[in-house]
Amino acid sequence: MIYSPNFHTSLVKNVPLWEWIFLVLNLIVELPTAVFDQLSSPHKPLYALVAMALSLLALVLCVIQLLYKGVKEGVTFECLGGKIPWFYSHPSGAQNPKRFGTFADLMGLLSAISQCIVTAINYDFARRAANSPIKFSLLPIIFALCLLFSRILETVEKKASEGQDA
After folding, report:
1. What sections of the protein cross the membrane (predicted)?
2. Which helix (H) or strand (E) holds 9?
3. What are the domain boundaries of the chain?
């Protein structure tokens, strides 16, 4: 791929603004969550409380993102012919409905839920002035970074394939 001066602006233009907002917000919330979680101790339960509140905020952001995406795609909950009940979208012109959610969407939701559970456990131990069995979890930060970079790479590949088709 040949570098062009408009490459960065075209990269941003190809991804909807709401996706960038959610990706960056998720990263912004996950970083302080990990920091406050690390700073918490039996003598500093307030840090654990802040970490728990931030992880709850990250979970709410994840759910809002999925709801927004679901409403945008016109998703309905269906049980289609012996399949597991799930959320499906019906793209225009397509005969078969498409399952809602990507692997990254589901892993993001699971990551947010697990982070909420871990920070709640840590807060409970800190509140009782006991040492927490869970010291530090990098998984949500790593996942948020991977999600951001995968979206950027996906956009770059899409842009490169559009350039080859032209």
Report:
1. 20-39, 46-68, 106-124, 136-153
2. helix 7-13
3. 27-74+97-156
